[in-house]
Design goal:
This protein is an alpha+beta fold. It folds into three domains: 1-83, 2-Layer Sandwich (Double Stranded RNA Binding Domain); 86-119, no CATH class; 121-183, no CATH class. The protein is 36% helix and 15% strand. It is built from five helices and seven strands; from the N terminus they run βαβββαβββααα. The strands form two sheets. The chain has a four-stranded mixed beta sheet. Strands 5-6-7 form a three-stranded antiparallel beta sheet, with no helix packed on it. The protein is globular and about 45 Å long. Bound molecules: zinc ion. Residues 81, 84, 86, 105, 107-108, 110 line the site of zinc ion (ZN).
Length: 183
């Protein structure tokens, strides 16, 4: 497990985070595999404690009354995914149909970023960014450590990531973003 450097005192990222948005002190306690990158904090709106784990090709987020509970929930999901004989689809369970190539397992709700070939249709890009797309774009613009890690782990996808970033920027510029839900 690698802890995101904005949580590690003495790093440039930690110094920056202390000035902008300090993350709570926390020590992960679950046996995450070696290649996992983890981070945690409190959401902005609403301020829910969260714990996020980035594994090759996927991303797991847990939320709870505190960060330990959020980590426990994320790890329970990780274990659930490990036991599942997945059934992949483009439909997010209880949510939208994704045409960007992402897949979700109908049984355990696991997520994979490039499970299918993307479907593009005319006019599909003429719409505001969803909250999830906005978070994704912001992380591509500001989380340099994550970008370096992605480039190292998935060098073949680098051109696709750059293309997606340009596309999301154009859409944000032309169409803005959907209103954030505060419920
Ligand atoms: Zn599954």
């Amino acid at each position: 497990m690698k802890i995101a450097s904005h949580h590690v005192p003495g790093t440039r990222e930690h110094e920056l985070a202390q000035r902008i948005r300090p993350a709570p002190d926390y020590t992960p306690n679950k046996p995450w595999p070696e290649e996992t990158r983890v981070q945690w904090g409190h959401g902005i709106v609403p301020a829910v404690p969260f714990f996020e784990a980035f594994l090759p090709g996927t991303f797991i987020r847990g939320e709870g009354k505190d960060i330990a509970e959020a980590e426990a929930k994320a790890f329970a999901q990780y274990e659930r995914e490990g036991r599942c004989d997945h059934q992949w689809g483009r439909q997010r369970p209880g949510g939208d149909l994704y045409t960007n190539g992402a897949g979700w397992c109908r049984k355990c709700r696991a997520f994979r970023s490039s499970m299918f070939r993307p479907i593009t249709k005319l006019g599909a890009h003429r719409k505001p960014l969803s909250t999830m797309e906005l978070h994704h774009l912001e992380s591509m613009e500001t989380d340099h450590e994550m970008n370096e890690w992605m480039d190292r782990v998935y060098p073949d996808d680098r051109a696709d990531r750059e293309k997606l970033k340009r596309l999301l920027r154009v859409r944000r510029h032309l169409f803005g973003t959907v209103e954030r839900k505060t419920a």
